[in-house]
Amino acid sequence: MDIDRVAGEEVCCLDTEQLQLPEVSSFVLKENPQLPEVLFSQWLSLSDTTRLVKTLIDDAKAGNPINIPGISANVSVGGVNSLPSMFPAGSAPPISPRSSSGSPRTSKQKTSPSSLRSPLKLVRESEWEVIPQFYFRNGPPAASALKEQCLSRINHLFNNDLDGLLIDEFKPVTKIVCKLPSFFSDVLFRKIDVDCTGMVTRDAFVKYWVNSNMLTLDTATQVFNILKQPDCRYLSQSDFKPILRELLATHSGLEFLQNTPEFQERYAETVIYRIFYYINRSGNGRLTLRELKRGNLIAAMQHADEEEDINKVIRYFSYEHFYVIYCKFWELDTDHDFFIDKENLIRYGNHALTYRILDRIFSQVPRKFKSNVEGKMCYEDFVYFMLSEEDKSSQPSLEYWFRCLDLDGNGVLTPNELQYFYEEQLHRMECMAQEPVLFEDILCQIVDMIAPEVKNLVLSNTLESSSFCVSSHLQRHFLLQREGYITLRDLKGCKLSGNVFNILFNLNKFVAFESRDPFLIRQEREEPTLTEWDRFAHREYIRLSMEEDVEDVSNGSAEVWDESFEAPF
Predict the structure, then answer these.
(1) What's the rounded Cα separation, in Å, for the pair 154 and 397?
(2) Burial class of residue 209 in the structure, from the number of CB atoms within 10 Å of its CB (0-12 exposed, 13-18 middle, 19+ buried)
(3) EF-hand domain: which residues (predicted)?
């Protein structure tokens, strides 16, 4: 008999509350953890216990119901069971009196089903329950109806071409079966034609799209898997070039660029830079699947594929937006070496920016330059700057300018840092014979924009004190209310955060905000979907177009077009 082996296995997981020793106090058992094991071993050595265990084992093997004396529902009121006792008659220590309301342990034993079981419980082995697979690395398999529908479309498109489809014939498969933009046709074809045979057969397409479960993935994941390199878990800027080349070659709204490959390349670069500016929030140049899903790029791609007028696709693909960005860069790049230095950038916006903010930009604090030339920014750096400057309400722009103002890089803006940048603004207002606005008033205005409850404290403290000392009063009010700083989270939670930056380092926009046109305010309310960048790009494109028309008229006749002066756009 393997009673000793069974005892050895059970002792290691023994529950002292299931021993049911009324002769021994529970306090003694808890204070002496080894005592239950000793008592249990001695109990097993008794002849009555051995006989009981053998009977239970025989009943278990025979499949009979297991009846343990004293552990059934008919437990005596006194709590004494018929199991062999460890103590001789009359020598058992007294047990503690039970409370009438019942102790927590007693109530637990009454309500818990486990309290009615023996530590030597032997139950009939239950049947194994098969858990269906719930994780699929390449996505869940397609439902039968969906798979049959997809195969029917594939058979229809590949019916007349038994050998397969060429790259020029593959576009209907991309649109109808894959439901992807048509300019994904080339990159999808090459993704399947790994051997570069120049043809995709039906079996090869079914293996890639249906058997690998690409069919069941969401559109963002499909695009991500198609564009990314085999061993990468992110998208780089070069991964978008194939689809943009096909877009330029096939879109009716971009046909006029086919004779100017240089500007086709610039357009593609600008689109890629805008995509990474808004979607690659980490700023490391590696676009992850999570970032792609959180952005609006997929919807913009679908819109660009369906819309004939590319300028109506204002997200990323608008040619007018590219035109504005590139013309601005070309105007500032006087020597046309495709680099801009600090003296070039100071002319941006009719000298709107201060030298102090330009120093921060060229110190590469908000973003590391890609130019690899000391003291100069390249076209990509300028795109990031211009998008941040003209739309300070976007999340990337707020982060860009917040890093510029954060002089010590501790992640917060203090009154001293705000005053440092405003000092030059104040000096410029005095030089332009404008009425200067003191920093104390500016700080109250900034606080009013970001946190109105802080403004009340500022005003109350101002009324109490006749003199307004920046080093004492402002510091004290910030320490009392906000621990002396403004965070990036505060700016992101405010719709007027862009005006805060304009107040500190863009004089032209600061003055325009103070004397804003009610007509423009009403126009913004009528078109809430348009961003500040959309409105700026539209105004600038009209202005640049008018200037170009005037230049064309001045250089030749209105009826006779001189091609030597024709713009490459």
Answers:
(1) 46
(2) buried
(3) 393-428
